[in-house]
Amino acid sequence: MEFRGTYTALITPFRGGELDVPAYRWLIEQQIAAGIDGVVSVGTTGESPTLTTEEHTRVIQVAVEVVRNSTASVVAGTGSNSTAEAIYLTQEAEKLGAHGALLVAPYYNKPSQEGLYRHYKEISISTNLPLILYSIPGRCGVEIGVKTVVRLAKECPNIVALKESGGSAERVSQLREELPDSFTILSGDDSLTLPFLAVGADGVVSVASNVIPKQIHQMVHAWKVGQSRLAMQLHYRYHPFFKSLFVETNPVPVKYALSVVYSERISEEVRLPLCELTESSKEYIRSVLKSSSSGSFP
């Protein structure tokens, strides 16, 4: 399976400290209606570090249930800084019917490139799921090196894609030069989706599409079919919104934005050690949502 196009890095809604399953189902239904190519369940935006194992698998299960009669796919976030835990979560996601797994680089323990290779190699042989590597050095303290990605792509047939959140179009260019065309590169940063597409990326795992799925899908599709002017217009129209979603740590801003746009559906609630936005950040996001220069919001 190839992962191309627009994938939404879903939030995990909470209400009173518990999973808000009805809100989660509703959010995924909105994504499907907007034509999104897939959803990423329990990634960074889904607050995976603070979910119990039971909650983690429950969230994946709900996503699989909701997309079952659609063309969208479910990518389950199953990464960990423990190889054994990542294998367990990936195997559980496979049992639940996920279409693929997203595996963030091990965080905190800062493995070497050889350690990263062995980590992903062990996961790949433990499952039949297509796997997406996830390099985000700003959170993990380690980058999955270009040579390591190439090595894994060559030796592990089910490692088929990379979510790139390193902030460098130069690195995407290098990856595209050294990887086969069948290997997918996805932007992990809404602000850089268009620049990354321009140098060979194949789509995005988007935070912004929690709120504006139709518009993000339209931007990526426009670029893919050669409508570069339309893609650029959409990029500039929503760029202020992209930036506002990182005024504080993700996913706190996007949960607040959703709570503003869909106040009766989605709560801004996050779990400690994350906490609510400052008042100044809330005002900033509200002003962007109201600004005509940022385009139309639901």
Query: What is the annotated CATH architecture?
Result: Alpha-Beta Barrel
CATH superfamily: Aldolase class I
- The oligomeric state is single chain
Helical proportion, percent range: 40-55%
Taken together, the total number of domains comes to 1
What sequence of helices (H) and strands (E) makes up the elements? Answer: EEEHEHEHEHEHHEHEHEHHHH
> In terms of per-residue confidence, which ranges show pLDDT below 50 for 5 or more consecutive residues?
none
Neighbour order of strands in the largest sheet: 1-4-5-6-7-8-9-10
CATH class: Alpha Beta
Q: What distance separates the N and C termini?
A: 32 Å
Radius of gyration from CA coordinates: 18 Å
C-alpha geometry: globular
The counted number of beta strands is 10
Structural class of the helix and strand makeup? alpha/beta
CATH topology: TIM Barrel
Quick take:
This protein has 298 residues and is an alpha/beta fold. Helix content is 46%, strand content 14%.
